Structure formats: C-alpha cells, structure tokens
Amino acid sequence: xxxxxxxxxxxxxxxxxxxxxxxxxxxxxxxxxxxxxxxxxxxxxxxxxxxxxxxxxxxxxxxxxxxxxxxxxxxxxxxxxxxxxxxxxxxxxxxxxxxxxxxxxxxxxxxxxxxxxxxxxxxxxxxxxxxxxxxxxxxxxxxxxxxxxxxxxxxxxxxxxxxxxxxxxxxxxxxxxxxxxxxxxxxxxxxxxxxxxxxxxxxxxxxxxxxxxxxxxxxxxxxxxxxxxxxxxxxxxxxxxxxxxxxxxxxxxxxxxxxxxxxxxxxxxxxxxxxxxxxxxxxxxxx
Length: 287
Description:
By secondary structure, this protein is α/β, with parallel strands linked by helices. It has helices at 2-7, 27-37, 92-118, 125-129, 140-149, 156-164, 179-188, 206-213, 227-240, 267-285; strands at 12-16, 41-44, 64-65, 68-75, 78-85, 177-178, 192-195, 217-221, 243-246.
C-alpha cells in the first residue's frame, strides 16, 4: 500500500503560498482547489510560518501533503530562501525561529511605513495588518497592496520598483539568519533543507557553498528558471546526491506565478520527489 501511495505521485506542486503569509487563498481553499485539479502531492510553503497546517480540512485524500515552509536566510548580504520540508513543527528551535521572524517582520514594517511617510506616503500599520493573514506575518507585498489600494502607485511592481524594493528609499532589511544556521535548525527539526529557486540567487556559485554546508536538495524547476538552468540544476543534484523538487511559487496573483496545476516535472524529478516523500513518511512514523 505504501509503495503504491508513493509510485502514483505524478502531479505535484511543492511551492504554494496561502493567505497565512502572502498568498490569496486560505489553506482550506487551496487544498480544495488542489484536489479539484487532481494533484497528487503538494506542499504549502508560507514564508517563515507553518500556521497553515493548523487550518486544513479534515479530509485530504486522495491528495497528499508534504509539510513545508519557506524560511528566509542571508548569505554574504544577499537573500536566500530555503524550503524546509517534513519538519516537526513542534520542535522548539523551529518554533523560536518562526516567532523571531514574526516579530522581526512587524518591526521592519513599522520602520518601512515611517520611511514611506517621510516620502509623503502615509499608510497605517492597521491597514497593512488587515491584509496580512491570520498570524499578522507582514511581508512587503502586503505594504504594496495597501499602496495600490490607496492610490499611491498603480501596481505592486511600481511599489517595489520605486519605494520598497531592495535598497529603494523605503527599504528596510528583514532580520535573517545565516544559511548554515537555518540548515541546522531544519535538520534539528527532522526536516530537509532545499534551496528555493536557485536560479534567482544573486551569485550562482553560492549553490556550491550551500552544498558544502549540507543542503539536502534544490528546487530545480521554478517559473523563473530557464530550461538551461533546469538542466544544470538537475545535473548538479544528481552529481551531489541531492533531492530535486518542482514548484510554481503560487501566490494567487495574476502574474507569471499564477500557476497551480502546471508544474512540468520530468520523470527524473518525480522519482526524486517520491524518494523525498517516502523518507519523510519513514521519519514521521518514528516521531
């Protein structure tokens, strides 16, 4: 039965966001939509929080879920996102990390709103919190959303390009741990650490450094990856014995990431995903 459960995994999406962080759909609605689309395996990977997993419907079958989250980290002054799969969300170190990011993001938002006000763009914290989801975990798209709503910019992209994007006038860096520290936290919680959208790294050579740090895999397919990058990441993962995943980074916005059922995972990637899911099931059974 377990073998059949693993082998019939073909339609996957292992990078999905909900309204708990900066996605459009609630966790329950996202799961219902995934079932309607006939997906076999998904992962909800909200930013720095696993709260979505407390809000899922009781009946998930035939859909399977690989528990996940997307954790922010920093390497040589640059953002690196790490997909944490299969963690024990009750692990104390992981819980402390989530709490640290929650408070840090709120303090960051307060400072960004102060800088925006200095530029004549007055937005209240309450307005931002109203769109920030159940845990009030604030990310920059929430601020951009209110900027659009109040007529300060025409689009979220304009908000980032002119005001809140990296190193723009109202930018404030979020508190982040080093990549090796995040990898350790994930491993201590019994999970797997995979680099999200490695093609978006500021420096492509960082991947080799992360392999030395002990990452478990790479998100080889992502909407922002060129096919040549996908091929390169697959070869790199195979050479180093790493897991491979594919995910659309779905948020629900009408942009290039508005993909839910269109993750073109090849058989070699699917085989790796099945192995990852099987190992997760083995580990979770022992907890």
